[in-house]
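Researcher: Here's my situation. A collaborator sent me these components and asked whether they could plausibly form a single complex. I don't have experimental data yet, so a predicted model of the whole assembly would be a useful starting point for our discussion.
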Amino acid sequence: MALGFLTDRLDRADRSEAKEVEAPQAPLPRESLESLHLFGPRCTWLVAMLLVQSVSSLILDSFKGLMQRHMSLTFFLTMLVGLGGNAGGQSVVLTVRRLALGKPVQVKEQLHVGLLLVLVMAPLAFVRAYMQQTPLSESLTVGAAAAVITVCATIVGTALPKLLWFFNVDPAHGAVGVQVLMDIAGIAIVCGLGYLFLELPAKFAK
Amino acid sequence: MALGFLTDRLDRADRSEAKEVEAPQAPLPRESLESLHLFGPRCTWLVAMLLVQSVSSLILDSFKGLMQRHMSLTFFLTMLVGLGGNAGGQSVVLTVRRLALGKPVQVKEQLHVGLLLVLVMAPLAFVRAYMQQTPLSESLTVGAAAAVITVCATIVGTALPKLLWFFNVDPAHGAVGVQVLMDIAGIAIVCGLGYLFLELPAKFAK
């Protein structure tokens, strides 16, 4: 979350590296780019991120019934949302590095990696939930959510910086983007799968 | 979350900058440091982070009653936990930069900034929760949690890299540390304040 200051740092590192090749004796005037130590910019970032991330509360609110009936799902929300941010962040960094080196970036390739990661992460998330006396159906939902979140995160984490790069925007900004997107998408995926696996069968049974 | 790969990148950027001064014609053999594109290291990182972040589910599980009686608190968990990661991450980056430039880093100074940030973030979190038809007492808990989380995040985000630096460990690793710590601390703070504000008064009233 809020990797803006880090990506800014990366930008500058990248730019200073580029500068290095042209004229190593003349580094960028870095001090002029620094603003995080000022109260205004720092506070503005925090306010913006808080408001965007609060969208997650709207989604959860609209699935209030599901969450009340299956409390265990809420216990694993932070873990699952974190997984999306982590896996997506990894893909962004890999993509930014490959683009910087002029290497080709293929979403299909990262989708393949995402599917391989699912083979480890989904069973792990399921076992972790089941170990905590979580009912089988809810543990399976946690595992399935881990699978969908991992695949989505690797795709978004690759496609987003590639898209930014295509539109001449620094792909490093994808680091913030993927964290915010996967925070909200993660919540939506858990709620959606919860409805599909835990609520729908009960409705059909009636 | 999982900023390890980013801080690694920063480390290398820093090291290459240092190298620049000594011998600009001989950059570090960067390729040898790269491992994130390999399945093993990437998956190991994700597994480790998932297991650490799953501690949050144990805390929530032990406050199950509170969460069931005050569902609105769970809706704002992702937003509040995100705030801790964001504010803490900002402090880490500021501290790492100051240490790199040989400037003094004072936890007291960041505590002061944290208290100023609280003046904006706590009312904002309260209003955001209250706007969503959250009961007044729960909205106040969300606001109070935002306050405590913001102050904790700025302190931990400053003290952790300073501590790492003191023990000759790269302070940049504080970026991962603060995210994981504030994920878990954030959940604990919301649960603790929820118990204090929403459960204790009811017990005394009996």
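Model: Some features of this prediction you could bring to your collaborator: The longest helix of chain A spans residues 174-205. Chain A has one domain: 4-205.
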